[in-house]
Amino acid sequence: MIKVGIIGATGYAGQELVRLLMGHKDVTIKYYSSKSYVGKRYDEVYPNMLNIVGDICVEDNLVDMAKEVDVIFTATPHAYISSLINEDILSNAKVIDLSADFRLNNQAVFEKWYNIKHESFQFVEEAVYGLSEIYRDDIKNARLIANPGCYPTCSILSLYPLLKEGLVDKDSIIIDAKSGVSGAGRSVSLNTIYCEVNESMKAYGISTHRHAPEIEEQLSMACGNDIAINFTPHLVPMNRGIYTTAYANLLSNYSYDEVKEIYNKYYKNENFIRILEEGVYPETKWVEASNYMDINFKIDNRTNRIIVVSAIDNLVKGAAGQAVQNMNIMFGLKENEGLNIVPIFP
Amino acid sequence: MIKVGIIGATGYAGQELVRLLMGHKDVTIKYYSSKSYVGKRYDEVYPNMLNIVGDICVEDNLVDMAKEVDVIFTATPHAYISSLINEDILSNAKVIDLSADFRLNNQAVFEKWYNIKHESFQFVEEAVYGLSEIYRDDIKNARLIANPGCYPTCSILSLYPLLKEGLVDKDSIIIDAKSGVSGAGRSVSLNTIYCEVNESMKAYGISTHRHAPEIEEQLSMACGNDIAINFTPHLVPMNRGIYTTAYANLLSNYSYDEVKEIYNKYYKNENFIRILEEGVYPETKWVEASNYMDINFKIDNRTNRIIVVSAIDNLVKGAAGQAVQNMNIMFGLKENEGLNIVPIFP
Amino acid sequence: MIKVGIIGATGYAGQELVRLLMGHKDVTIKYYSSKSYVGKRYDEVYPNMLNIVGDICVEDNLVDMAKEVDVIFTATPHAYISSLINEDILSNAKVIDLSADFRLNNQAVFEKWYNIKHESFQFVEEAVYGLSEIYRDDIKNARLIANPGCYPTCSILSLYPLLKEGLVDKDSIIIDAKSGVSGAGRSVSLNTIYCEVNESMKAYGISTHRHAPEIEEQLSMACGNDIAINFTPHLVPMNRGIYTTAYANLLSNYSYDEVKEIYNKYYKNENFIRILEEGVYPETKWVEASNYMDINFKIDNRTNRIIVVSAIDNLVKGAAGQAVQNMNIMFGLKENEGLNIVPIFP
Amino acid sequence: MIKVGIIGATGYAGQELVRLLMGHKDVTIKYYSSKSYVGKRYDEVYPNMLNIVGDICVEDNLVDMAKEVDVIFTATPHAYISSLINEDILSNAKVIDLSADFRLNNQAVFEKWYNIKHESFQFVEEAVYGLSEIYRDDIKNARLIANPGCYPTCSILSLYPLLKEGLVDKDSIIIDAKSGVSGAGRSVSLNTIYCEVNESMKAYGISTHRHAPEIEEQLSMACGNDIAINFTPHLVPMNRGIYTTAYANLLSNYSYDEVKEIYNKYYKNENFIRILEEGVYPETKWVEASNYMDINFKIDNRTNRIIVVSAIDNLVKGAAGQAVQNMNIMFGLKENEGLNIVPIFP
Predict the structure, then answer these.
(1) Is the pTM of this model over 0.90?
(2) Does B198 sit within 8 Å of D181, measured CB to CB?
(3) Which of D177, D142, D179, D185 lies closest to D159, judged by CA?
(4) ipTM for the whole complex
(5) Mean pLDDT over each residue of chain D, to the nearest integer
(6) B150 is catalytic
(7) C310 Cβ partners below 8 Å, 6+ apart?
(8) How much is the average pLDDT of D311-318?
(9) Which candidate in C57, C150, C154, C223 is catalytic?
């Protein structure tokens, strides 16, 4: 059994990790750590867990925990894990970090967008960006995984084949993204109370959202050039789900089938990416609670643009599910172990 | 492997059966039958099932199907299965009927409330009411299960111990019930379109809902007397969930702990019934997508009434989950096989 | 023009008052006072008010405000206005208090349920309970109005005619109530963030909610005897709306028409109470944003109980709308001035 | 009093017209016509209208109705009014058509996108496109108004100043649009039942939606060149609201203030367009139930693109409200008569 510790187990991503790992036959969770609920039973914090997880939430102690578990998942605010990580920890346990601390390869970019000094940038070099479908080989041997953000997962996987294969103008990329409310976490603020969100939608962080540089860096690596994109997130009144609508100018006239072949080349054998039939577009509900990403595209011959639409569950493929997928890769398990989840409908 | 056929596989309850059985290690589904989608791939009808169920929906033929499978689940409109069932079918395969056809022991009551002649009442005698926690022993050897309705499951389990033990006035029972919209099924009507339901709630079928006689019959058997209750269902703007708030006059002064002991006597060892701590009341979200029923109660000393509140997922414990639980009992499997589902939150 | 000051203008009830008074031709709002947003423009706090209300929120000073306005609406937490009110204020301006401070005639009951000493109980005697349909004559000459709670408005109006006319057993009353989330106000807490409320429902405060004694006191006055009821509030995932389902044992066999006549006697000429046709039950959406209460009932001959169902918009008839209705009565205006609002659908 | 007839009074747009006109002091509605509900009382079709509109729904007879009213609103499926309109009707009454029949100036474009022959294209020349802010002068004297679609209203007003003033590359325009579910009307289909829409979102009609040519035609007229855009509508789980996020490449480096000046030039004095403060972006809730459009923009210097975000209520500014605004203009009334509605929040 793989022994697991979770730092930040009482946030929504942490709780989703618990849900998924409860169904994983090779895993046992040893520690549930929390900032806000130390000393409380986990099922008091999340009553859905009654009779399932009765453990007491503990303070986090990364150093000690590393000695007793095989892998630590950290689902914490940014700048927290990077202030604690060290060689000692990583020599004892693998770390899969769901925060943003090790995602950006460029320190200046990190410090500008996050407006904070990075305290352990040396570990960024070693960290592997945990987009499983793209970095699978590196993930296998990694000690430290930078688990991608929810928006970046959906955005990068949407466009990666197009940029890698040079089908689109790298300067033409616009990503219009929509998210359910659980993306904001379980923290309490006026912006997330029910009546302010329900029956409404809005854009926010236009061109200033921190997931933009993450997407840009990965897409730049895909095409071999630095690129700048437009990224506009929107808040949608639903619990779960990310939907991205990505636009790019095609560099030539391509048919649907030609582009489909490119997507097939990259994703056909992927367990968790489902390319829909022509004319069928994703709906977030179709992937709910699962690790799937559904994807399809439309070519508009009049403008010679391609529109790529994709959907994930932000808490699964956009966070906890991908973290488990990465763990499976790191420990040589079947990649979909514990992740064979039928999306819940309705 | 237990071979399964599903009649009515393309309704919401049918689809939930598919979801659950996909995660059941001892089961293989042989037939997906449907009235409306014959010839269509199942994942075209339910795109969440892409890459999971690619089978073609077939017409239902109960007689032939019975020869090739071990158990048939029927999730059909009322009066349909009762018009088809016969000895031949039941001698070949077990039948778990999710419709109302075999739930009521009294033919006159059935025909009055359903306003239709019952065409095979002889099978009602043999049928076992599939409320697993109460009729477990009979279910083991049954050929035909009348799987309870969603409201009755939650209502009966809420009050059964109180009536069985004679704690409450049998003539004082009021059940105020609330349901998510999936209870109305996937059929299309003005009453269930989004804008008519969203941001609204209403009572319906006050004292005329067909689940009332089902609850009354079962509670009458519990207390040994014919009783009449008030049952008021309400529609609530959410996909899933049944919530029942049941009121009864206590026949004596009981403390919380005394009543708790009674509930413990009946439910303490039940896998799927979770009695909450004093002062903590169920929320439908805490059982979502799972087979749990959460229950608690409050004694009001001023009025000497007990208020029992319970929550289930109408599609799971209120339909498909309980059907699988019954199948497990009938085939000698672990009762929670395939049903160890962590409720999804949020 | 009637000059108005609002204390607590930045809560949901306060904002609803502003919305309604903006459409009232005889009123001008002089002061928007707030605890949390002093110095901010009102339309920054509520951007829906852009170009409509650009005033700056001020600190509340009841004494000074009373000298400059004709009526003060107070939409504040309980125990606040009762700690400030005095003869001086009331001699200068009328006060319509939307909090609970002056609603209960029995000081001991108030102090027990609110767990706080009442600091100015002498004013309770003078205060008129502002249920417009019942206390209209007293309201005309009142200086101080105790505007009813949202649940009590819907509950009392539901049952008042039955108790006043002695049709039901006073000891048999059960009120099962449901509320949208705006009833919890604009304060921020884990219980009201979107993901905790959405797609879920729950009972809360069973037999302990503070609106219970308010309902009991008024219904006791209606029937001339002290009564105790069961009151169970539930939270429903929608912004607005109160729905009450009230149960009582009929003292005799009454037909629908006989009882309808009783309701007609009390409500037929009421502007804001709509008695629906037999068999049609209220939906909260049908009264949204309006001051209407929709009501109907069902007699169950089998149990000889009556079930009365009613719906209001908690922020309008349950708070701000009724406050304006009371103001209209106090100032001799048409009772529906500014309240002729077509319910918004969908 | 202006006498009004409504054809299609029982759809959502028709009902919204009724709501608005009930609050319009210069209007009286003479006819409520309907296809599906002839002979029914209007408040049976829309119970929110109880005690407000008790008229009986009648069959539509455009010719006769025109003789008895001053203006006819038609809220009907496309190709219906264009098959009935004639000189006789227009010489007797003004017609404000909320369908698509007279919106497109190019017959071939109409017939291609709507896949039907236009039966009275001669009237298109006379019809005025009823985007009040842009065609106000023409509307004054029009007999026939082509009331704009919901998406086009929000999209065109978002970009009109930029194209008119030549600030953006006409070939770079992308409009990512989101709509609440009432945009689909009150018709019944699997796609709009509650459980299929709730807790989900999706793109649909990518590059094939019929509002695209309407937007293109108007923006082409604004910039004096034929342009093709990308238009992607999405369905969002809420009753009301349109949100458009429009992207365009700026032709030069402009500051926020420079562009703001352009928007001010066009919209500063507009009653119903609210330009928000820098950094504040629209939310659909802030305009709910009102005729406002809220708008703001962001300039991304890194990509030199402008992102314009706007919100309207699809049933008001996107349909019935704009129709009333046009009526006010046509009849020489104050443009905001009957439309001074405070947006409802929450």
Answers:
(1) yes
(2) yes
(3) D177
(4) 0.97
(5) 97
(6) yes
(7) C154, C155, C157, C158, C243, C244, C246, C282, C293, C294, C295, C296
(8) 98
(9) C150
